[in-house]
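Bug report (template v2)

What were you trying to do?
Predict the complex of my protein with zinc ion.

What happened?
Run completed; filing so the output is reviewed.

Input:
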Amino acid sequence: MQSWPGPPIPKLPGRGFPLWLHDSATGQVRLTAPGATARMYVCGITPYDATHLGHAATYLAFDLVNRVWRDGGHDVHFVQNVTDIDDPLLERAARDHDDWMVLGMRETALFREDMAALRILPPRDYIGAVESIDEAVALIVALLDAGVAYRLDDGSGDVYYDVGRSQRFGYESGLSTDAMLAYFAERGGDPDRAGKRNRLDPHLWRGARPGEPAWESAVGPGRPGWHIECTAIALNRLGMGFDVQGGGSDLLFPHHEMSAAHAESVTGDWPFARHYVHAGMIGLAGTKMSKSRGNLVFVSRLRGDKVDPMVIRAALLAGHYREDRPWSGLLLDEARGRLGRWREAVALDAGPDAGPLLGAVRRQLADDLDTVNALAAVDHWAAEALQRRGRDAGAPPLVRKTVDALLGIAL
Ligand code: ZN
């Protein structure tokens, strides 16, 4: 699939710090230790609706991971999927008397525009579920051959993964069985499906049903499940033990737990990813922003209302990525004021030495993406500059480059 155009990244003097990130599997902030090329997979959208601020906040967090690694001297192989065939897409298309494929293409195009406007660095591989069906099928065949997947004998053609045969099932989320069952039911699972070996077994392949799109394959006609889609796309491009598997905290279970279990069962290797990193949810009026609740603020809508995408970016970076946090128009007002001061300050002929600021932003971001303090450091420099303190003519351009390269904000 076509990705989106990425902004140039200014070169900064010196080199950034190694990145520490919270890992959900261990519950600890741990050092990432990528090789020359850092490897990151961030789960993409199911394109049945426009990008809302919850998505944007998640993709912004991983954009910072990308930027901090690059500043630390690494190349970054970033992979993202688009779940362009799945139940929610079919259900929305049916509700709106739309063609599922046209709906998916339209929303994916809008997503690309939103990502480019927010200056999110594009993935090297941007892969759709439909274009990777053969990859998912190959893994399902391997899982069946290994005896960790099974076909229901009700004539549906459905294939399930046997969580009971997974060596370390549950290591990533650390949830109790009751909690797993609750999330599984809430997030697309089918705990009460008759004939399964374990209520938590997720489907790998959905056999063809009348009126639903289906593809011929070595496991029969049908379509792949969501978890195996991500497993296949990640494994075939990044391999096992890649550096970061990312997404919103609502993907921790079952999606990321199942994707990792599938990969570990197929390869006999462990772990799928070295860090499992999850961004908090953005709420509106006291509840999580989600499609099912219908309380969404869309990036495209804000752009349509002529909100500067850099203001949206700064507003979302004003909170820590792991916190569940509320959205309000006040955040936009504050971000507008903040960027106004920054822009005024970098337009000056001179300012205080910006070397310490570069070091501070690097240090804060390397500490589990502490954007709150990184932004405060820029505020401090801008306030000093606007009081005409400092005579360093090189400082305003260096601050402009620092904010651009590390925070992704163009001033
Ligand atoms: Zn995924």
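What did the reviewer find?
Residues 323 and 370 are 11 Å apart (CA to CA). The longest strand covers residues 75-82.
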